[in-house]
Hints:
The structure holds two protein chains of two kinds.
Chain A: E1 4-8, H1 12-24, E2 28-32, H2 35-45, E3 49-53, H3 61-70, E4 78-83, H4 88-97, E5 101-104, H5 109-122
Parallel strand pairs in A: 1-2, 1-3, 3-4, 4-5
Helix pairs in contact in A: 2-3
Chain B: H1 2-32, H2 35-52, H3 54-94, H4 107-154, E1 158-163, E2 168-171, H5 173-183, H6 205-220, E3 231-236, E4 242-251, E5 263-272, H7 274-308, H8 315-341, E6 354-357, H9 358-373, E7 376-382, E8 387-390, H10 392-410, E9 414-422, E10 425-433, H11 439-447, E11 449-452, E12 455-460, H12 461-467, E13 471-477, E14 482-490, E15 537-545, E16 556-565, E17 568-578, H13 587-593, H14 597-600, H15 606-616, E18 621-624, H16 627-641, E19 649-651, H17 652-659, H18 668-675, H19 685-705, H20 711-720
Helix pairs in contact in B: 1-3, 3-4, 7-8, 9-10, 15-16, 17-19, 17-20, 18-19
Amino acid sequence: MGQRILIADDEANIVVSLEYMMKRAGYEVLIARDGREALGMIERERPDLVLLDAMMPGMSGFDVCQAVRASEALRGTRILMITAKGRETDLARGMGVGVDAYLTKPFSTRLLLGKVQELLAAG
Amino acid sequence: MKADRRLLLALTVPGLALAAWAIAGSVLFWLTLDPAQRSQVVGAFAPLLETHGLLPVLWWLAAAAAAAWVLYRLHDRHVAATARLAESAEVLIGDVDTPELASQGGEPVRRLAAAINALARQRAVLHEDVARQVGEANRQLAQERNRLAALMAELAQSVVVCNLDGRILLYNARARALFRASTHMPAAGAELIGLGRSIYAVFDRGLVAHALESIEQGMARPDGGEASPATQFVTSMPDGQLLRVQMAPVRAASSTSPAAGELDGFVLMLEDISEQFDQQSRRDLHLMQLTEGSRAALASVQAALDMLELPDLEAAMRARFQGVVRDEIAAMGRQLDSMTQASSTDLMTRWPLQDMPGADLVSAAARRIAAVTGASVTAPEVDGSLWLKVDSFSLVQALVHLAGCLVGEFGLRTLQLRLSRADSRAHLDLLWSGHPVNTETVMAWQLGAMQLGQQQSPLSVREVVQRHGGEIWFERERARQLAFFRFLLPLAAQQQLPESGANASPGASRPEFYDFDLFRASDSSRALEDRALDELAYTVFDTETTGLDPAGGDRIIQIGATRIVNGRLLRGECFEQLVDPQRLIPESSTRIHGITQDMVRGRPNIEKALPMFHAFARDTVLVGHNVAFDMRFLQLAQAASGVRFEQPVLDTLLLSAVVHPSQASHALEAIAARLGVGVAGRHTAVGDALATAEVFLKLIGLLRLQGIVTLGQAREAARKSYYAGIRY
């Protein structure tokens, strides 16, 4: 397969599980711990999909997504936003800035994996 | 004289006519005679001419006199009497109280006079009737006003009524207490609220103007006559108190319907919501921390558990996931602990919001953006059925700020606003064509302090959005080459305004704090100098001092003042402040004013007291008796206290000299006695100020009799008066 996934989340405890699961599923995994680092990696490494946490210190997931969608080169990157913000306003904002899918924490990893595969297949 | 000469000429006419008739008869008789007969007649009459010639002349004179007399009588009875009657009747037209017309002249003239008198009596009765009805109406009006004011005084809510200039014309005791508590004015009565004072001393002018504008919009809507177009806003006081202010219009009565008149003023109902707002904010914050924190932790735990369920997990990884689960559970426990302990915080809060039609918000924002940035704003796509729940003041500021940023960055000439429904919320978009904005800039615009033309707001766009529990983001419509900022805003739950649950408590009350004549008053329509004395606001004051020589070290130890607004003395709005002179009070002066060293101990010094008095006297003309003396003391203290008294000053001593130039004494007692003003509490500052105020009110009336009506005329007359030469 050789598809690459970037996990951008500042909480190490969830990154551990997501990384393990994605590697197990056969993806190449990159990790970023805040928004700025994530945007840098997207520009350099061009991952196929980003698991993007909405709330990160400095640049939020919303800001990262907005920047990606604004760039001609990066626009095609799949973005799956995962967030602890459960309000519908957050969901609306996520959709507004152009995420491909949106998951509210907590979620089942099976569901997450399904979404990831679905998005990559669609691309 | 001309009429008299004509009358004399007229009176000679019968005599002359008689003479002419007789002469003509004689001449005709003479012509019928032949020469013999003529000589016979001459022969018969010639000798008689010598002896009896005078007889026919006298006879003719008697007849002429009699005819003249008859003619004169006729003229007097019928012509002259009618003319006199006409003159009297003309006087009667001008003045109802003229005595009845005298009965004179001939019978028809007498009857005419009687008829006119009857008409005049009828008119007098009517006149009296109208005056009585007007008096009755005025009494009823006064009674209704008293009743209204009594009701206001008893309201549990704080109420302030202002005219369109923001001048206060009614307030109740609760409003007074509210502002007194929030401004910490130590001197009794030195508050910001008072009849004729400006509400803008308390509230930001822009905030009130914004609220008024939305009320006017409400009134302009087709159904504006039916619904009550009230609005509300929340503002903070200098000491951090948070007030919710409900504003309702006062409309000028119109003939068709009382609700359809022009905006004439506004009613403010104030509520201190600091406490409930704090509580609510804390609750909201805790709730948010709890939910978002828990979600994140649960997500980590669930993901770890999912991994642990995998059958082929190697031991090292198993230990690691178990560690994650333990770690997260411990963290959640700690968070719950801190949550229960935390009591206060100053993080994101939800601001109290008001319901308003979305279209009103859009048009208000469009106007503001156009006014501040100069760009033209269109709003072709607005869903007029939407009611929003917003803080319109800060939201409009946010839109103006973003528009200003766009205009500054790209030099845009046109912007667009768009409002549409999005499920249970609304999208409010600020659109422009082309020019995408990069993410860094968007963040800077949203997080930086808002810039509104020359002014800066302490808030950022993101904070404004957070107040609404909403969101904002930047989006592009590639197909239409459009870029926009989208505000996600809450819709109003119900679309009617809250009922004001104000009840009047029973019991007698004394109406106090109102002056409805201020509705008619208008600021700045004329220069101060040209305004009438009886329509100005005055601060009448007096000072007590340690002695008579300010240059020699004497100081103010007491300031007392009262206010006159619209020709009415406001005994309820007095200012009284003892001042520590920071020197010894001589025994000799204590005998006059009764103020001892003990009484001024711990009182503010003049540097602190003078600004309080300055605030009390704001926007008024200063009045005092022999005020030059007091002004010397005030001016000496001005520099140290940082305030300046720049308003006009009137002196009752000089004005008394204008009114009664020949009187020997213009001492306050002497003037008061002359004008029938009772003086109580002489030589306390407030007592003297009150006496001076009453004297001043009487003087205004006396000055008017001399044609001195305006402030400028009064100052000029005082300047020219004899006593004006005296200097202290």
